[in-house]
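Hi all, posting the design record for the shared folder.

TITLE: backbone redesign
STEP: 1 of 1
STRUCTURE INPUT:
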């Protein structure tokens, strides 16, 4: 499915992409960011370009990331990061396993479904404000747009994204399908977590 404006690639893209897949930690008493201590379910891996993650998923990834989850606490060399929205988290953007339980991914999916409903029926609803902060990135994905003619004001750019709501909803629906399949198939094979690892 690579013909969409906001693309999701099946498999591994080693460039500027987040790699998302079910994983198992072999020994929670050891460094959970050591490749030798993690079993990856590569067959189900998807890759999403990091700017697309930032624009359309990152507020949710921060919200549902559990700093106190043992798998996250046992990652060596990971520090607390202060993000621009004021959130402090040990979610690590680069080359680090960020672990989510299957239940936390279910909760994330449920919120995306609520977001989709609002995008479809009430695009300007205040509940969407925190998600739409970086939606203007989609304007830069559209090669028909002359980016030099875009408004300097971010709020004005975000208003323009309403015409792209079908593209954003399509991305969310595809993402949900991949996540639901990871939960289903990963759980069957004993994978406890889904990892989001940045480039």
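Okay, here is what came back for every position:
SEQUENCE:
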């Amino acid at each position: 499915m690579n013909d969409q404006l906001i693309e999701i690639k099946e498999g591994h893209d080693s460039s500027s992409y987040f790699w998302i897949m079910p994983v198992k930690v072999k020994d929670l008493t050891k460094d959970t960011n050591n490749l030798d201590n993690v079993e990856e379910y590569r067959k189900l891996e998807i890759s999403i370009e990091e700017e697309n993650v930032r624009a359309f998923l990152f507020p949710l990834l921060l919200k549902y990331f559990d700093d106190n989850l043992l798998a996250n606490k046992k990652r060596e060399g990971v520090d607390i990061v202060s993000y621009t929205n004021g959130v402090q988290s040990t979610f690590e953007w680069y080359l680090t396993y960020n672990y989510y339980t299957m239940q936390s991914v279910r909760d994330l999916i449920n919120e995306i479904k609520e977001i989709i409903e609002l995008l479809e029926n009430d695009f300007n609803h205040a509940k969407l404000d925190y998600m739409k902060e970086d939606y203007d990135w989609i304007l830069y994905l559209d090669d028909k747009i002359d980016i030099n003619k875009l408004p300097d004001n971010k709020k004005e750019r975000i208003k323009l994204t309403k015409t792209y709501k079908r593209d954003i909803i399509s991305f969310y629906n595809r993402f949900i399908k991949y996540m639901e399949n990871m939960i289903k198939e990963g759980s069957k094979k004993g994978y406890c977590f889904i990892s989001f690892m940045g480039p």
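COMMENT: The mean pLDDT is 95.
Let me know if anyone wants the other runs.
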